[in-house]
Specification:
This protein has 125 residues and is α+β, with helices and mostly antiparallel strands. The chain has one domain: YaeB-like fold (2-Layer Sandwich). The protein has 4 helices and 5 strands, in the order βααβαβββα. A 5-stranded mixed beta sheet has the order 1-5-4-3-2. Strand 3 and strand 4 (91-98) form a beta hairpin. Helix 1 (13-31) crosses helix 2. The termini are far apart.
């Protein structure tokens, strides 16, 4: 519950692809007996942050409206954007949808720091 409303976290778009691939890689590592890796650390970091988002959708850092990439506006109708730092300098990007009944944190992207800087115009290239 957040502000008296139930919360939900949904992984979608590029984030879903990245999350599913990460789960697959971690599953393969565990099957080979690998118990510690950057992939496993990142997956655990994502899962921890999702639990935090369920309790507090405003946990992340709010991104200024003029920094919201047009693709998020066009594809997801995102009028607000938030970022959460993950292990290994990865980032999780999400938007918050709220209504009378519930609050939804819609995770749009999971990306490394270089891709984050490029997408949000912090560096060229």
């Amino acid at each position: 519950m957040f502000k008296g409303k139930p919360t939900k976290v949904i992984i979608t778009g590029a984030a879903k692809v990245e999350f599913d691939e990460l789960n697959k890689v971690v599953g393969e590592e565990i099957a080979k007996g690998i118990t510690s890796s950057d992939h496993q650390t990142l997956l655990n970091s994502i899962k921890q942050k999702i639990e935090i988002l369920k309790a507090n959708p405003e946990y992340g850092t709010h991104i200024q409206k003029n920094r919201i990439p047009q693709e998020y506006v066009q594809i997801f109708d995102a009028s607000n954007l938030w970022k959460i730092d993950l292990s290994g300098a990865w980032r999780m990007i999400y938007t918050i949808r709220g209504g009378e009944v519930e609050i939804i944190s819609l995770i749009l992207d999971i990306m490394n720091h270089r891709d984050y800087e490029k997408k949000f115009g912090y560096r060229k290239g």
